[in-house]
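Suppose you are handed only two things: the residues of a chain and a line of SMILES describing zinc ion. What would the bound structure be? This form records exactly that question and the answer produced for it, so the two can be stored side by side and reused later without any lookup.

QUESTION INPUTS
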Amino acid sequence: MADFTLRDANEVPGRYYRTPKELWGFQLPAVRGNPKVIARKVLTANALRLGLNGVLGTIRPRRIIQSLGAWHVIFSQHYLGRYIHRAYVTVHMDGAGHRVYLIKNRAVPRDLLPESDAVTVGMRQAREKALRSIHRGSGLVKTVTHEEVWYPVRTRLHLAHKFRFHRRSPAEDWIVYVDAGTGNVLLAYDNLAQAAGRASVFDPNPVVALGAWEPLLDERGRPVSRPPIEAYRDVRLPDVSNAGTLDGARVSTRLTKDRVRRPSLDFRCKSHQRGFEEVMVFHHIDRAVRYVESLGYRGRRAIFTQPIAVNARATRDDNSWYSPATRSLGFGTGDVDDAEDGETILHEFGHALQDAICPDFGQSAEAAAMGEGFGDYFAASFFADRKATRRRVLLNAVMTWDGILCPDATNANGAPCVRRVDRPLTYESFDHAPNADEHDNGEIWSSTLWEVWNALGRALADRIIFESHFQLDGFTTFAKGARAICDADRNLYRGAHLRTLRRIFNRRGIGPVD
Ligand SMILES: [Zn+2]
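ANSWER OUTPUT
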């Protein structure tokens, strides 16, 4: 029979158990046979050295993994009918000769196993404690599993209740351990929404990144399908699901067919590759919601209480939308994919923001135009600092990549774009015809808001304009919207900017505002 006794092994000592945590650098003979059986024999032959005396019976094989060149036998430890959290032994052997070359050991030694497994705090009481520890808002929580386990704290094993909870919104997967002796919560963590992913995106779009649209058109005047590398920017996705899908606390692309899944959380890809639109939508909306939160709309003032659901490839048409019925966003892939332009994404996000504050916004012609104008304003405001250093001609245009095939009819030197926010329009030019386009009418409102932005600066203008929505309704008018902006200035800044605001609204023929 082969001699499996370890000699001359390197050792990493354990911190709490005074047993070796890791042994390697030894020579054991090659043998034939089942890896599980070999592993067991090696552990038995070295039980004293590993501190496994008297606990070999508590160790059960859980998994055997065959990698390209080796076998890995994984044991977990069970005691009085419950498994011990994080207590394991692993044995690693080469694939050709079954020569064991590494042993890792986190088994709890005999003298540290408790005498008693008495439960003082029952399951129901523990569950209440656990739920209280993860309480946030009113989202419904489902108990997925419950089991009793041993939970080590330094050298002591605590009998504990282990719960898995799932909350749909915000999406959370909790694991909570509650001490069955004291009722204390030993550990609670959310499996979702913890990890940071990587991505490369257009920020907001290739035209802004390059400061020019000319190089993005080919000889036939069509947008190039592969924008140059300078058009991309590497970003962190601070909050994606560990499952490798684009699900976060603020946005989820779950409505997209054939979603990307990257367990490594590395979502980098180019715009012609599958998944790019999803990544764009996720990044830009996540960041926009965080910005809104940073202005003070968080906690009990939070505007969004669940992730915004998105379909990043919703239609082949050149069209995108916000659906108030399902509170979700859809992006079209006609011409330039809408979700390839961060400004188009934020325009749509603007609708979601308004609807979250003021449900069913935009039911009258004026309210609808204000909806379109606000989305354009928000996109222009959000990305203004990206454009300031480039060509100023881009500063007052929005969706210059989405609209690269739309020359500016009113200005020969202007950038092609979907819309501008600096039109010299007044309320007089509002088209009240039943078939009027709310986007055209919206330019009156966006240009007015943009004037406020230029007069007050981004931080003040955004706060006052966001805040004004709380007193509006779905059938509102330009005049009421302007008054709400003045009220917001009174409430936030004691009316410090009223003179400026009134002057702007008067000049635009919007009001009266007094
Ligand atoms: Zn719109």
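WHAT STANDS OUT: The CA atoms of residues 1 and 31 lie 10 Å apart. The mean pLDDT is 91.
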